């Protein structure tokens, strides 16, 4: 399998039609030249999301609907998605299309031979945020700023789910967090392991349907605990990989490159 697209879903019944009408055409187009599977993880939904997904994609043999009972959290859903994926490249994205699914081909093009992970970056100077509650932007941006200081200043956004990973990353980097922290933890540990990260600057938009599952106080506590862990471990100490298949360009000795705004065109 060339590409797996992993999408965690929890109480997202209103967004299932978005997956059908906006994601499926992108997948169909990608399948003209590559093999692509969808891994949809229903994380303990109580609104029938899992059944709706199974019905909507029942005729597509390359769609897997995996269920958690009860719900275990975003990080656990991502981990389950990885475990059930077979692609050489794995894309993760939000069910609510807060980053448009039409950007998936752009994200994949950014995964050049010298890059191991591409992450969307709304806090990149060429990125942006639209109609997202101010307190959520403040908390997310503040967390990313602290991770920039602890890990790599050239990565502007550490909290975004919309990413593309090479299989080698997922086979090497383990992450423990079951909640929202898992999104940040896997990127942080990949950077510490020496993998190369590129950013795709783009705009984060508010969800059209449903409500956010984020619990602010819990998320703040988990980030603070992880940041303390990174400090105690020695901040920016990087652990070498046995074989960096994708050698970073010499001008980016820390292994991170940032996409310019032109990547969106």
Could you characterize the architecture of this molecule?
This protein is an alpha/beta fold. The protein has helices at residues 16-30, 49-56, 74-83, 104-109, 134-150, 167-172, 181-192, 216-233, and strands at residues 3-9, 36-43, 63-68, 89-92, 117-121, 128-130, 163-166, 197-201, 203-205, 256-258. It has a single domain (3-264), classed as Alpha-Beta Complex (Spore Coat Polysaccharide Biosynthesis Protein SpsA, Chain A), CATH 3.90.550. Helix content is 35%, strand content 18%. The protein is globular, with a radius of gyration of 17 Å.
Number of domains: 1
> Helical proportion?
25-40%
Query: What structural category arises from helix and sheet content?
Result: alpha/beta
Q: If classified by CATH, what would the architecture be?
A: Alpha-Beta Complex
Strand order of the largest sheet: 3-2-1-4-7-5-8-10
Total beta-strand segments: 10
Under CATH, the homologous superfamily reads: Spore Coat Polysaccharide Biosynthesis Protein SpsA, Chain A
- Radius of gyration of CA atoms, rounded to a whole number: 17 Å
What would the average pLDDT be, to the nearest integer?
Answer: 88
Number of helices: 8
Taking the alpha carbons of the first and last residues, their distance comes to 28 Å
* Main sheet attributes: strand count, strand direction, barrel closure: 8 strands, mixed
Task: Work out the strand percent.
Answer: 15-25%
Principal-axis shape equals globular
Give me the CATH fold name.
Spore Coat Polysaccharide Biosynthesis Protein SpsA, Chain A
The CATH class turns out to be: Alpha Beta
- Uncertain segments are 236-265
Q: What is the helix/strand order? A: EHEHEHEHEEHEHHEEHE
């Amino acid at each position: 399998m060339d590409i797996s697209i992993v999408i965690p879903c929890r109480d997202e019944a209103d967004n299932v039609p978005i997956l059908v009408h906006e994601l499926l055409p992108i997948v169909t187009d990608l399948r003209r030249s590559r093999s692509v599977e969808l891994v949809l993880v229903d994380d303990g939904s109580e609104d029938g999301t899992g059944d709706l997904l199974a019905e909507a994609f029942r005729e597509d043999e390359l769609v897997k609907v995996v269920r958690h009972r009860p719900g275990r959290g975003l990080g656990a859903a991502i981990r389950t998605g990885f475990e059930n994926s077979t692609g050489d490249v794995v894309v993760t994205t939000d069910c609510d299309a807060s980053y448009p699914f039409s950007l998936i081909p752009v994200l994949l093009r950014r995964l050049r031979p010298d890059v191991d992970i591409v992450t969307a970056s709304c806090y990149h100077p060429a990125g942006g945020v639209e109609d997202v509650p101010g307190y959520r932007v403040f908390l997310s941006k503040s967390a990313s700023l602290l991770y920039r200081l602890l890990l790599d200043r050239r990565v502007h956004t550490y909290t975004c789910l919309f990413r593309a990973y090479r299989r080698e990353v997922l086979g090497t980097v383990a992450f423990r967090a079951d909640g929202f922290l898992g999104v940040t933890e896997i990127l942080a540990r990949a950077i510490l392991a020496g993998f190369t990260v590129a950013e795709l600057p783009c705009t984060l938009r508010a969800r059209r349907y449903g409500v956010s599952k984020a619990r602010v106080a819990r998320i703040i506590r988990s980030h603070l605990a992880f940041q303390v862990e990174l400090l105690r471990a020695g901040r920016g100490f990087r652990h070498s990989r046995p074989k960096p298949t994708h050698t970073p360009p010499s001008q980016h000795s820390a292994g991170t490159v940032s996409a310019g705004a032109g990547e969106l065109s």
